[in-house]
Amino acid sequence: MAGQIIKQDGFLSLYKGLSAGLLRQATYTTARLGLFNQFSNTLKEANGGQVRRDMRRDAPSTLV
């Protein structure tokens, strides 16, 4: 597939969608990290400032 694109449009055409992909990835990553911190802080407050052992193990997997 890449070979066909290079033949038709040139090598630099492979990078046409790169900026959009990087912007999307940066947006999703910052949102996930921000939400994780918010949920983590909320759980700590609800638990008297302590993070239960099972929360540390299970909470991150529920956010994915």
Number of domains: 1
| Main beta sheet | none
SSE order, one letter for each helix or strand: HHH
Seen as an oligomer or otherwise, the chain set is single chain
- Helical content (DSSP H or I, runs of 4+): over 70%
Number of helices: 3
Radius of gyration, whole Å:
20 Å
Uncertain ranges: none
Number of strands: 0
Question: Which strand-content bin applies to the residues?
Answer: under 5%
Class from helix and strand fractions: mainly alpha
Average residue-wise pLDDT? 81
Global morphology: rod-shaped
Q: Could you tell me how far the N terminus lies from the C terminus, measured between alpha carbons in angstroms? A: 31 Å
Pick out its properties.
mainly alpha, 3 helices, single chain, rod-shaped, 64 residues
Structural account:
It is a single chain. By secondary structure, the chain is an all-alpha fold. It has one domain. The chain is 73% helix and 0% strand. It is built from three helices and no strands. The chain has helices spanning 2-9, 18-46, 53-62. The longest helix is centred in the middle third of the chain and has 29 residues, at 18-46. It is rod-shaped, with a radius of gyration of 20 Å. 0% of the residues are buried. The model has no long low-confidence stretch (mean pLDDT 81).
